[in-house]
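Human: We require from you a standard protein entry with sequence in single-letter code and fold as tokens, and nothing else.

Assistant:
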Amino acid sequence: DHVHHAGNSSGIVDGAAAVLIGSEAAGRTHGFTPRARIVAAALSGADPTIMLTGPMPATRKALAKAGMTIDQIDLFEVNEAFAAVPLRFMQEMGVPHEKLNVNGGAIAMGHPLGATGAMILNTLVDELHRRQLRYGLATLCVGGGMGIATIVERV
């Protein structure tokens, strides 16, 4: 019977982030250098009373669309709306702690609701480049029982 409280939940904070999505040709036309390629993305539904489980089915669906296994993913960003989310993700998906939220999660950095997805995707791509790794997966639980996951490849 886990209880969520201020100490194990992310703060709702101000923040902004942007992700530009387009073809490689369009990016180059406008002077941008691509940093990552979207391999697959997926949405899923879970029990809305326990929406914190949404990242797992979304991740499984994205991996299936990509024809990949969890072991092929080098780094994970799991939105830490509550401490239980990444803990459950690691346990259920078999992901080692050293590959997940390597720069901290939303409990440390905050959870700017409208910007969180872009924020963690940028954090993931930055870290893939810094470590010279290939694949990353960003996932979030979403109110109402949904989950979303995106697999990217560093370019």
In short: The helical segments are 24-29, 55-66, 84-93, 106-109, 116-131. The first strand starts at residue 36 and ends at 45. The chain has five helices and four strands. The CA atoms of residues 110 and 147 lie 19 Å apart.
